[in-house]
Amino acid sequence: MIAEGLRHDEGIDEIRRLAVEAGVPVRSAPREKLDRLSARGAHQGVVASAAPFGYAGLAEVLRSTSGSQRSLVVVLDHVTDPGNLGAVIRSVEVAGGDAVVIPKDRAASIGPVAHKASAGATAHLPIVQVGNIARALADLKDAGYWVAGADERGDQDLWHAPLNGRLVLVLGAEGSGLARLTRERCDFLVCIPVAGRVSSLNVAQATSVLAFEWVRQQA
Q: How far apart are alpha carbons 209 and 32 in whole angstroms?
């Protein structure tokens, strides 16, 4: 659907052309309707209806990374903000990671906000939705991954912790951090030293810092 009354725009014309070529119906609609359908009313005059997001399976990710000496998987322990989820996915994809794992319940899922915050990374990076984080961590360990939990009380800082090879980074929910059971499943805890008065970064920023320390240590 394209908002009625839009001024001539090359981008809109390109969308129309590609839709016609792909056999996708295009129709005009009042801007108010697009406002209702879009997340936060941020549609720039175009809204498309699409199939539900297709999550990957953990077994599929483990098959694709089998035999690789370096692989990065990020596990989010009940992160509820879809904007943070999308930003995490973007950072992991840019860093060359292999997957992001999220729980099915009490956590953000892939929707319009996460898609937009990922800047397109959801189209390239497998996102796995699991029923049990602890079970997923056990499966990753069995596949030869070391599991590092991000915790401000960690006894190793990121520059001295072994953040390389086949690594799982586990980051907790905004505010509460890692759940007790999740923390116990980690092989070690790693912290990001801070110099200011605020005690920590948000989950998306912390993911970027830790993921690119993994990249640095490969070099």
A: 40
